[in-house]
């Protein structure tokens, strides 16, 4: 059975998703919510904390809680997170379609980027990602075969990182990322539901194992209306 704070959380989520609370609206104060739901302040705060963690509200000290745009998904810039992990966390319907899976000799620039020798091959994996029935991410992954000997469409459709870590026993440690905004290509328009958008947000990632080996280069192309790229920074 749901505890009280989860019931309150679900009720407020319903009000946000149904437009009763709109974007940038201020939620009622903790005191008013306590009276409305007939619960303690601690219960209300637990519900508000989960709302904030799941991207529904922003709590501002001394001002209150404000409704965020739930049509945009928080994408952690500084984290190394798979698409499956991200969608599981935010609880959205998702689907991955493997558009292409090939083991190839990379072009010279790609080989150099991945610090490969001329005889080394890479897995080229192109996947279209669907959220809430819209294709909004095109992921182009290049994985060094010397670290991942075999890949199947089934693995790529599920979770590449899950396979690497839990089946191959490798530990993914960190990545370097570069974010740019570019004109959408014909490939973007072919695989994504671009609507009237002619720009695309491109996140390039170089991902390393815990022994500092560079094993993957990813170009993740996002439709610009669906994501907020977030980071957490602390001075000093």
TrEMBL record:
Annotated ranges, domain HTH gntR-type: 2-70
Organism: Clostridium frigidicarnis
Any GO molecular function: DNA binding
A GO BP entry: negative regulation of DNA-templated transcription
The protein, known as: Trehalose operon repressor
Keyword DNA-binding tagged: yes
Keyword tags: DNA-binding, Repressor, Transcription, Transcription regulation
InterPro entries named in the record: Bact_HTH_transcr_reg, Chorismate_lyase_/UTRA_dom_sf, TreR, Tscrpt_reg_HTH_GntR, UTRA, WH-like_DNA-bd_sf, WH_DNA-bd_sf
């Amino acid at each position: 059975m749901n505890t009280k704070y989860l019931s309150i959380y679900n009720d407020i989520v319903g009000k946000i998703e149904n437009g009763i609370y709109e974007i940038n609206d201020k939620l009622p104060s903790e005191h008013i919510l306590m009276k409305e739901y007939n619960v303690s302040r601690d219960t209300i705060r637990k519900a508000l904390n989960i709302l904030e963690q799941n991207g529904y509200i922003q709590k501002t000290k001394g001002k209150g809680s404000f409704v965020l745009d739930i049509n945009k998904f928080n994408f952690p810039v500084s984290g190394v997170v798979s698409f499956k992990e991200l969608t599981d966390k935010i609880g959205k319907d998702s689907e991955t379609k493997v558009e292409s899976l090939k083991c190839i000799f990379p072009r010279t620039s790609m080989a150099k980027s991945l610090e490969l020798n001329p005889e080394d091959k890479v897995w080229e994996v192109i996947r279209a990602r669907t959220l809430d029935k819209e294709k909004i991410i095109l992921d182009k992954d290049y994985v060094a075969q010397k670290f991942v000997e075999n890949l199947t469409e089934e693995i790529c459709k599920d979770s590449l990182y899950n396979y690497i870590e839990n089946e191959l026993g490798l530990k993914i440690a960190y990545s370097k990322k570069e974010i740019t905004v570019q004109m959408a290509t014909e490939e973007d328009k072919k695989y994504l539901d671009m609507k009237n958008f002619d720009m695309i947000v491109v996140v390039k990632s170089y991902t390393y194992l815990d022994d500092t080996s560079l094993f993957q280069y990813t170009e993740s192309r996002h439709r610009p209306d669906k994501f907020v790229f977030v980071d957490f920074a602390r001075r000093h």
